[in-house]
# Entry
Amino acid sequence: MNDLTRGAALAPEQASAGMDAFWMPFTANRQFKAAPRLLARAEGMHYYTPEGRQVLDAQAGLWCVNAGHCRKPIVDAIAQAAASLDFAPTFQMGHPMAFELAERLVALAGKPFDHVFFCNSGSEAVDSALKIALAWHRLRGEGQRTRLIGRERGYHGVGFGGISVGGIVGNRKMFGPLLPGVDHLPATFNLKEQAFSRGQPQWGAHLADELERIIALHDASTIAAVIVEPVAGSAGVLVPPVGYLERLREITSKHGILLIFDEVITGFGRIGKPFGWQRFGVIPDLVTTAKGINSGTVPLGAVFAREGIYDAFMQGPQGAIELAHGYTYSAHPLACAAALATLDVYRDEGLLTRAAELETCWEDALHSLKDVRNVIDIRNIGLMGAVELAPRPGAPGARAYEAHVKAFFEEDLLVRYTGDIVALSPPLIVSREQIDRIAAGLRSVLERID
# Structure
């Protein structure tokens, strides 16, 4: 028996029939298949289980369904695209929707962003941005700038570039040495100093000065880019301290280092502006996006580049390929159609700023849970939130997992968990009444957990 067959022999006997073949991502497969949590359809703010239970979605699918589920204008646009242009290559060819979408996105971002590079996911957007940064320096005669700086507890997808600059140990430890020449800033979160902050914590701006130490260690002439999430979502909604992002921008600009914002979660209205950089008033050089770009309907990602980056590549023979990078499905017609329709919905319903309108209601609802047993912190910004629980001795993560399961089966509520953190990010169409229901359902669950 080899290692693969031995693993198969140990699969749980209680796994539901017909589920064995699917190797689920980021999931405890044996645990899930012993007690599946299945979703059969969705509409608006709700999922529906195969047996017909209505489940309130408090996590926007996976941080992505910003416009709500199965919105008719988006569904119709996808169907029409599938019937008229099922696929078109964007290597040496093009289709009108790709160019239209790029123009719409650049207009939404505004100056200084003037070009968009399409891919299929946040992971691909990150790897694309890192490659663009490295190539940009080389084209400018600074090819020695190859180092990349990420941040502890940062999540930048699952490509080799993304997990190299990312700082979540569980995503890195199984995959060898990863990319060379990568360093990491310290995480911005400190429970003692920041617990129960509403919005941006006051403590922590000085942590950005660690970048100066890293630069002194490696020399600025070797560093290509710094990449951070404006708000670290997957690590449990770690909101940047007041002044932190501004200081990063100051330091990177001083040393000629590109600053990349990973806005796969914060992009498209999640924190009250179309993009997080607009909320914080800090302009990066490259921005990675995905998820909310078309409300999670068809895989699509995009990298926004500020003025001058694209132009640096437009040199040499006119017939030469300027950037040897891309994906078969870059700017897929269905994904572009979905994105164009989604942007219309966002515009017509004011969804890109709705999180700002609901932020106080959301904040008050979450912080009302401060008195619940085992709650050690609550964090929020826009329509993002996290309730952190004290870990059980010897069983880290068990409390939040139990909250996730109980919320689904007992409160008809879908919440995300990461470690001992319950993370929340409802669709931007959420009502005030539904915000209250999310808080009440979570309270009921947490009060029943030891």
